[in-house]
Amino acid sequence: MGLKIQSMKQLKAEMLAVAKGTRQPPVDAGQMSFDSVEAVMRLLTPDNRQLLAVIENSKPASVADLARLVGRAESNVSRTLSRLVAGGFVRLKPGAGKAKVPEVAIHRLTVDIDVCRFEDRVAVA
């Protein structure tokens, strides 16, 4: 699995070309995508990386449990988790009752930048 760096304009052009049949779907179609490496890094702030580390190391049983572990309001943690889920970094699995159990989905991220092509690729391990 990988993350794709692609502007919305590029994504739209790619999707239209595939729909018109002028190009084949790319092999990386359906991967999580961001407009830039900077967008990925804005998501991976030190606070968010700490949250990921707590999820990985403490295995909280719920979002409320995670909020207690990090000393933050549950609503704040929930908003942050929503962004991390949207970015593909966290999964929320069903827990006891209505609880959602956070789980780290991506443990390592490597950025490969071809400085001459201005096209970034992000590889996920």
Kindly list the characteristics that best describe this protein:
four-stranded mixed β-sheet, alpha+beta, two-stranded antiparallel sheet, 125 residues, 43% helix
In short:
The chain is α+β, with helices and mostly antiparallel strands. It has five helices and six strands; from the N terminus they run βαβααααββββ.
Provide the β-strand percentage band: 15-25%
Low-confidence stretches: none
Could you give the order of the helices and strands?
A: EHEHHHHEEEE
| Sheet with most strands | 4 strands, mixed
Portion of residues within helices: 40-55%
> Tally the helices: what do you get?
5
Oligomeric assembly? single chain
Query: Class by helix and strand content?
Result: alpha+beta
Head-to-tail CA distance between termini: 8 Å
Tell me how many strands there are. 6
**Overall radius of gyration:** 17 Å
Q: Which strands sit side by side, in order, in the main sheet?
A: 2-1-6-5
**Overall mean pLDDT:** 82
Shape: elongated
Structural account:
This protein has helices at 8-20, 37-43, 46-58, 63-70, 74-86, and strands spanning 2-5, 32-34, 90-94, 100-104, 109-114, 119-124. It is elongated, with a radius of gyration of 17 Å. The chain is built from five helices and six strands, in the order βαβααααββββ. The strands form two sheets. Strands 2-1-6-5 form a four-stranded mixed sheet. The protein has a two-stranded antiparallel sheet with strand order 3-4. With 125 residues, it is an alpha+beta fold. The longest helix is centred in the first third of the chain and has 13 residues, at 8-20.
